[in-house]
Amino acid sequence: MKKYLLLLHEDIEKMQKLSPKEMEELTNSHMAWAEKLGKSGHFISGEGLEENSVKISGKDSIVKDGTFLESKEMIGGYYLLQAKDLDTIIELAKGCPCHLWGGTTEIRPIMEYEE
């Protein structure tokens, strides 16, 4: 099966305004969805990501703190999934709970290398 990275793009302002109860609902929705994907054999791994990050660039390895996206969005998490083809992943991704809170998903196929 091929592997795909599903990136979860979240609206930073919306996420910061969620109540503790809404955050719990969001977390529970993701846990339930991941469990469903696991039972169907598509789930490999997945995690939520903190808002802040560190960027290292150039030959001098300059380190910068930040959130580096120039928009209101952040990558709030990811799922590493597997399926026979992209169409299957697209159908699975439509059920991602982040869509319920205004988020979007991006699918990136994992490059395959011959051994």
UniProtKB/TrEMBL annotation:
Similarity comment: family membership: Belongs to the YciI family.
Name of the protein in its database record: YciI family protein
Domain of life of the organism encoding this protein: Bacteria
YCII-related domain segment(s): 7-112
Annotated Pfam families: YCII
